[in-house]
Amino acid sequence: MLELRNIHKRYSSIPAVEAVSFTARAGEITGYLGANGSGKSTTMKMITGLIEPSSGEILFEGRPIRDDLMAYRQRMGYVPEEPHLYSHLSGMEYLEMVSQLRNMERKTASERIHGLLRLFGLYSDRDVSISCYSKGMRQKVLLSAALMHNPDLILLDEPFSGLDVGSSMILRSLIEELARRGKVVLFSSHELETVERICSHVIILHRGKIVADDSIESLRTLMELPTLEGIFAELAVEQDSAKISREIADLIHA
Amino acid sequence: MRNDWAIRKLQFVVLFRVFWMRVVDLELLSRDADPSRLAQQFGTIFVTISIFFSLPVLLSGGGHLSLSGEWTGEHFFIETTMTIAGLITVLNWDSAFPDRRDVLVLAPLPVRPSTLLLAKISALFAAPALAMIAFNLFIGLAWPLLFISGSGGFFGALRAWPAYWFTIFLGGVFFVFTILTVQGIAANLLPRQLFLRLSALLQAGTLCLLLSVYFLEPSLESPASLTAPQNQRLLAWLPSYWFLGLFHQLNGSMHPALAPLVRRAWTGLALSTLGAGSALLLSYFRMLPKIIEQPDILPGARAVPWSPHLGNSLQGAITLFSLRTLLRSSQHRMILSFYLGIGLAIVIGYSQTRFAGLVPVKGGVSTTFLLASILMMILAVLAIRVVASIPISLPANWIFRVTEVRPAHLYQRAVRFSWLALGVTPILLILFGAFLASYPWPQVLGHLVTMLFLGMLLVELSLYTFQKIPFTCSYLPGKANIHLVFWACLLFFIRLLKDGANFESRMLGRRMSCILMILFLAVVAAGTRWLAKVNMNPAKELEFEEEIPAVIVSLRLN
User: Fold this and answer.
1) Minimal CA separation from A78 to chain B, in Å
2) Residue pLDDT, tens place only, A77-103
3) Which residue, A72, B107, B203, B477, could crosslink B93 as a Cys pair with Cβ 3.0–4.6 Å?
4) Of B116, B275, B271, B86, which Cα lies nearest the Cα of B185?
5) A104 CA: distance to closest CA in chain B (Å)
6) What pLDDT is stored for residue B185 in this prediction?
7) What is residue B200's predicted lDDT score, i.e. its pLDDT?
């Protein structure tokens, strides 16, 4: 179980995340939603240990992650929002490097890397430099790197970005399968339809604060709205989208 | 409504700024870094060198210095300025012609190709021009006083200054244009994919050529040498002498021996201008459409699958990552070749000059070879240290952060292993091959063990302040100046190294002395390692972001 307790993050006194508390349970897929700049990726980075919260505590299985960050990192897999990879390496070389950095046993690592490359359809391009990969191929490398050590906590920040329809379907089923096998999955995305379909529980962030934390079913009932998009628009979208679009058209027309 | 000229001027200024900033890869820099500081740092180095070279003239008032009828001074400054211009152009290699990013960003905008071309050329020339001016800031004021022609006087001085500045400018332009021509020919004749692959090799080759010519070209500055028939073929290939002739023509101190060189200078300048102009025009009218037509996903450049077992998994990961970065990143390869190229050129030049005064010890190892091996070992480790602090794909370093599952001291051990494998071992292997055939094996063994401990000592010294993974930490210009100190004191170091080589040669001749020397080096290396271990903060995590150290200045009020 992953638990965030009253997390704050400030950048030069500007608050990015304020009083964020939630729990993501094993076997569940927790959706983490918010508009651009709402503090989603900052929270994700704090959960990975990349940045430290200004205050508050992050616990994994009841222990603060900072108590033994190295042991925690061994059990975590992370797909970042941007597909930043070492593009001078090939897909195979990158995954081998990650397995070595994670101190995986060589034989196990080799079997898993070959398997993942084959299953993600990258095997024929395994020795090609990542600089020649499409966005979707890069995303598959990131997913392979995040999953190859069989982590207990999986953090996915926009994992569907750049994937084609077929790969998206595979990933969707994969996330569900991983949750069924007892993993803690925290999943951030702007694709509300996908979130609605696979997440059992959603957290909606607005301007760094949690505005909703419940199951989708309860939110629908509570807010008397039929879709997650409607709920999200009600809670996290301040602007009148029709009005803004009219204003943009007027501005460029003037 | 602005008129067309004003719009083009504004576009030119905006584009010039964009292209000029490309000289520094901003993505590499730390968030605290000031990109202009890097330029200032380079400028300061050149100005300092300029002051240093001007001191003899300034201190003597110019009057007491005589140039002994040879043109060594003129030639040295012209040649050095040309080489600086050439080196800066080589370092800006990738920004010479428009790339895919330029095309994709600028093509949809209403910018004329001619404005784009003009901004690109101006930005391209700005860096070498500034370097040439900085280097000659004091030299160009002081030294022309000594270059005044015989009929001299005040009017002679009035002529010598513009003649000098005009010559160094034309010399620099010649090198810049020639390099652009070579690059342009390759870009236009070769298929685009092949050019992109060969471009890095061509760049490294041009750099080596510039350095080799600078350090190895013979001294032919006297009229006798310039007119000697056996030197004519060589002079035809040495542009610095052509511009020496041009300087004398402009200065009014023309010697008949220089006439063919002057002709070559003007012809060379005309041809290089024509070549560069054609290459640039062709690149804009022929290459731009090719770049636009290029598919988004390129057919793969295949890496050779090679994953050897190197130490433990962390040592293997860091060593292979470092090796692949050095082999595949043109920026890192260039810096490495710069250090090794200069080292090699000094070694070759030193072993050829009589000035070195090093003769092989009878029955022992030649001190020249000993000097060469010590210098190459120092440069190899120094180059690895310098190049390792320059990151590659900085935003991608998150993977090292999220996989940091071991204590920091294990990472330092792995970095030590990688530097010994990539910096020290290749030099030892080269030395082994070069020495074994020429010298008795006990002395070869003694020297190799000495070099091994020297390499280990240098690695320990380099690691002293390096609590990071090579190529993954942002770069803060001006923080580590070890390499600048090294280059500034190079002549002094060579003198020291010569004494060191003589000392080692004597030690290698006696078994007991040799063992003692090796033991001493081993103890020093072990001591430095112990110091580095003590210095390292075990609680500290690896550094991924260079930060300006917080300095608190005490006002001493209490």
Assistant:
1) 8
2) 999 988 899 988 999 999 999 999 999
3) B203
4) B275
5) 8
6) 86
7) 78
* CA–CA dist A177, A27 (Å, integer): 9
Contacts of B414 in chain A (CB under 8 A): none
Pull the structure tokens for residue B79. Answer: 């040649």
Report the C-alpha gap between A62 and B172 in whole angstroms: 68
CB-nearest to A128 from B301, B401, B405 is B301
Structure tokens at B431: 């030395």
Side-chain half-sphere of B108: how many Cα atoms within 13 Å? 3
Element (H, E) at B240: helix B239-251
Rounded to whole angstroms, the Cα distance separating B267 from B274 reads 11
Rounded Cα–Cα distance for residues B462 and B210 (Å): 29
CB contact (8 A) between residue A127 and residue B305? yes
Paired strand residues for B475: B29
- CB pair distance less than 8 Å for B300 and A87: no
Tokens read off for B184: 């342009």
- SS3 (DSSP) at A19: strand
Closest CA to A4 of A64, A85, A91: A64
CA distance A162 to A231: 26
Q: What is the dihedral of CA A15, A19, A25, A28, to 10 degrees?
A: -60
The interface predicted TM-score (ipTM) is 0.87
Residue A17 has pLDDT above 70, yes or no: yes
Q: Name which of B136, B407, B376, B2 is nearest A71 in CA terms.
A: B407
**pLDDT tens for residues B495-515?**
788 888 888 888 888 888 889
How crowded is residue A22: how many other Cβ atoms within 10 Å of its Cβ? Answer: 18
Is B301 in contact with A132 (CB distance < 8 Å)? yes
Separation in Å, CA of B480 to nearest CA in chain A: 25
DSSP one-letter string for B132-179: HHHHHHHHHHHGGGGG--TT-HHHHHHHHHHHHHHHHHHHHHHHHHHH
CA B344, CA B376: separation in Å to the nearest integer? 7
Q: Minimal Cα–Cα distance from B101 to chain A, Å?
A: 14
Nearest residue, CB atoms, A86 vs list B302, B307, B392: B392
Q: Which of A92, A93, A101 sits opposite B403 (nearest CB)?
A: A101
Distance in Å, alpha carbon of B14 to nearest chain A alpha carbon: 24
* pLDDT of A111 higher than 50: yes
Give B352-393 as a DSSP string.
Answer: H-GGG---PPTTS--HHHHHHHHHHHHHHHHHHHHHHTS-SS
Closest CA to B450 of B379, B382, B377, B383: B377
**What are the tokens at B526?**
């072990």
Q: What's the rounded Cα separation, in Å, for the pair A62 and A58?
A: 9
Beta-sheet pairing, A55-60 with A2-11: antiparallel
Closest CB from B300, B307, B400 relative to A125: B300
pLDDT at position B356: 45
Among chain B, residues having any CB pair with chain A shorter than 8 Å are: 296-305, 307, 313-314, 316-317, 320-321, 324-325, 328-329, 392-393, 395-396, 398-407
Predicted local distance difference test score (pLDDT) of residue B358: 43
Q: What is the pTM of this model?
A: 0.79
**Three-class SS state of A23:** strand
Name every chain B residue with its beta carbon within 8 A of the beta carbon of A101.
313-314, 317, 399-400, 403, 405
Residues in chain B with pLDDT < 50? Answer: 354-361
Q: Give B172's contacts (C-beta < 8 A, 6+ positions apart).
A: B81, B82, B84, B85, B86, B128, B129, B132
